[in-house]
Amino acid sequence: MSKAKTAEDKQILELSVALEITKFQRDAYHEQVTKLEQRLADADRRAERAEERLYEATRMLSTLAMQAVNAPARSNATEVLVDGKSILRLNNPINFEGEGRPQPKPQA
Question: Where are the domains of the chain?
Answer without folding.
Answer: 2-72
